[in-house]
Amino acid sequence: MIRSLFTAITGMEAQQTNMDVTANNLANVNTTGFKSSRADFQDLLYQTVRAAGSSQAQGVQVPTGIQIGLGTRMAGTQKMFSQGGFQETDNPYDMVIEGEGFFQVKMPTGETAYTRDGHFVKGSDGRLVTSDGYLLDPPITVPADATDITIGEDGTVSAKTGGATTSESIGQLELVRFSNQAGLDSVGRNLYRSCPASGDPITGEAGKTGFGTIRQNMLEMSNVSVVKEMVNMIMAQRAYEVNSKCITTSDEMMNIANSLRR
User: Fold this and answer.
1) Which residues have a Cβ under 8 Å from the Cβ of 23 and sit 6 or more positions away?
2) Between the CA atoms of 12, 18, 21 and 26, what dihedral angle is there, to the nearest 10 degrees?
3) What is the pTM of this model?
4) What is the pLDDT of residues 181-198, one digit of tens each?
5) d(C-alpha 67, C-alpha 224), whole Å
6) DSSP 163-178
7) How far is CA 170 from the centre of its chain?
8) Angle between helices 226-258 and 2-27 (to 10 degrees)
9) Which end of the chain is more exposed for a tag (fewer CB within 10 A), N or C?
10) Pairing of strands 66-69, 147-151
11) Which residues contact 197 (CB under 8 A, 6 or more apart)?
12) Facing residues of 157 across strands?
């Protein structure tokens, strides 16, 4: 019964973590480019009372053993990089990646971060930056007199400058993908950072093999499914209640044992 108390505790802690992940998903249901997370769990060690295949008296071999589990633990939180819905905007610098790939962003520290959030604005020097002022990499500089900004599916940025009647290229966007994008390190602000689990970044142009295409005047919304998260919330709550019931029942059983009289 003492074992059951500690086993149930691990279950309650696991469901609390599961609820934390669900709450974060729901909190970011309207966050541009947000990717939902999933909590993965695994069982703990087992106490082997009798090993399977062991011999009893007269050399009889038992077909099954006796193992008692000790609960569960968090194995990891995995990002789900399924495509989110698209929303049309009036900002010519808003972009969405239809398919695989990330935009590159240069951090103030000089480090490169990666994002699916295609909301960019023109800074004071004409360069495209994120809402936090981080530079798009490679940099795209829009001339002050530029008009009719167009961004092609291959990432070519064109505009009419100096009163010209035809558009000319003013920059080329570059996308990045990873062999294991689920291994990227989330750093907040819709940004990811590469790490050994994600593999080295692979750069390329939009529309090429392995890379998605770019759509202008569009933003990728969160891929969070509210209905799915609500179901997960209910399941986590019920599992939490069941584990708490195990603690209550174990306590009642110990109370009964303590009440035995000769």
Assistant:
1) none
2) -110
3) 0.88
4) 999 999 999 999 999 999
5) 39
6) T-SS-EEEEE--EEE-
7) 34
8) 160
9) C
10) unpaired
11) 180, 183, 184
12) 151, 171
